Amino acid sequence: MTLRVLAAMSGGVDSAVAAARAAEAGYDVTGVHLALSKNPQSYRTGARGCCTAEDSRDARRAADVIGIPFYVWDMAEEFDREVVQDFVAEYAAGRTPNPCLRCNERIKFEAVLDRAVALGFDAVCTGHHVRVDAGRLRRSVDAGKDQSYVLGVLTSEQISRSMFPLGDSTKDEVRAEAGRRGISVAAKPDSHDICFIADGDTAGFLNERLGSEPGPIEDESGAVLGEHNGAHTYTVGQRKGLNLGGVGERRYVLSIEPVNNTVRVGPRESLLVDEIVGRSPVWSGRAPATEPFECAVQLRAHGEVYACRAWQRGDELVIRLHEPAAGVAAGQAAVLYQDDIVLGSATIDSTARSAEEAAVS
C-alpha cells in the first residue's frame, strides 16, 4: 500500500525539493500551503519563503512542476492564537519567545498533522534540514542550516509521522537540485526575520499591542540609571539601545521585571548562569531521565552548545552547565543532545548562578 504524504509547501526552495523527493520516492504526495494571515499584505514580502500571497503562488508553481495536487489551507485563526498572541503574551511576561519554534510545534506539527491524519494521510513532509534515525531527530549534515533545535519540541509520535527528505543534503545541493528540476524558486533567498512583523520593527509591533509605558532602568543595587519606553522591548543579554551614556563599564540587560515595569542592567559577569530550569519537558530521543546524566544543551537557535548534566524533576527539566553561559533568556528553548541526536527539550523558565561558580569567578 502506497503511503499518502501531505507535503507542507511554504513557497521556498527547501519545501519544494522535499516534496519533489517524496513524490520521486513513490509516495502519494499532495502539496498544501498554509495561509497564515487574513491580510497577507501585512506580512513580509519579497523572497520570504513563508506566509505571503507571493509565497502561495511560488508553492503552487512548484507543485505544478512536480506534478502533484495542491491546496491552500486557511490556518490564520490558529496561527494568530497560537503564535502571534503567544509571542505578545510572552514578551508582556518578561520572556523572549521563539515564534518559529512555536509555529513548528503548534501549527505545522500539531494542527496540520492532526488535520492530515484525520483526512487519511500517513505522514507530513517538510523541508526542514534535519534527519530521523530510528525514530529520533538528528542534526542535518549541513551544520549551518541544521534545524533540529527548532524541532526539538516535537514528540516521538509527531516525529514518527513526519518526513524530512533534506537532512542528508547541504543547502547548496538542494538549490542545485531545484534548478535541475526546473523549480523556479531555486535561487530564492532564505527567510530569517519574523514573518508577521512586516517592517521588522519588533519593538514597534509590541508597543502597538502592549503600549509604551515608561519605567526605570536600574542597576543591581537599585540605582536608577535611565528610563525605558516599554520593558517588553528589551531582552536578556541586550547591550545596544540602552541609551545610558558612554561613561563607565558596558552594561547588559540582566532581567525584565514586568510587575514593576523595570529593566535591570549590569556587567557581563552578572549575565553568567550555570543552572537552568525548564517547564513542560518533552523527551523524544530517550526515556525521561529522573537521575542526572551527561549530555549537551543548545539554548538558542544556531547558538553555542554547552556540556551539562540534566534530569527531570516533577514537571521541570533541570540543567547544570559545566561552564557558565551568558544571555540565557526565559522563554527560549533548551534542547538536549547526545552527539547529534536530539534527546528532548523544555521551555526555559528560570536561570541562576550557583554559589560555587560565582565564588570561583
TrEMBL record:
Site, Interaction with tRNA: residue positions: H128, Q332
First-listed, main subcellular location of the protein, grouped into a coarse class: cytoplasm
Gene Ontology molecular function, alphabetical: ATP binding; tRNA binding; tRNA-uridine 2-sulfurtransferase activity
NCBIfam families assigned: PRK00143.1, trmU
Location of the protein in the cell: Cytoplasm
PANTHER family in the cross-refs: MITOCHONDRIAL TRNA-SPECIFIC 2-THIOURIDYLASE 1, TRNA 5-METHYLAMINOMETHYL-2-THIOURIDYLATE -METHYLTRANSFERASE
SUPFAM superfamilies with a match to the protein in the record: Adenine nucleotide alpha hydrolases-like
Active site residues according to the UniProt entry: C103 (nucleophile), C195 (cysteine persulfide intermediate)
Protein name: tRNA-specific 2-thiouridylase MnmA
Sequence similarity: Belongs to the MnmA/TRMU family.
An individual GO BP term: tRNA wobble position uridine thiolation
Gene: mnmA
Ligand binding (ATP): A8, M9, S10, G11, G12, V13, D14, S15, L34, G127
Transmembrane segments: none
First-level EC class: transferase
Gene Ontology CC, one term: cytoplasm
Superkingdom of the source species: Bacteria
Stretches assigned to the tRNA-specific 2-thiouridylase MnmA-like central domain: 205-266
Keyword list, A-Z: ATP-binding, Cytoplasm, Disulfide bond, Nucleotide-binding, RNA-binding, Transferase, tRNA processing, tRNA-binding
tRNA-specific 2-thiouridylase MnmA-like C-terminal domain mapped to chain residues: 274-348
Task of the protein: Catalyzes the 2-thiolation of uridine at the wobble position (U34) of tRNA, leading to the formation of s(2)U34.
Reactions listed under catalytic activity: S-sulfanyl-L-cysteinyl-[protein] + uridine(34) in tRNA + AH2 + ATP = 2-thiouridine(34) in tRNA + L-cysteinyl-[protein] + A + AMP + diphosphate + H(+)
Documented EC number(s): 2.8.1.13
Interaction with tRNA, as annotated region: 145-147
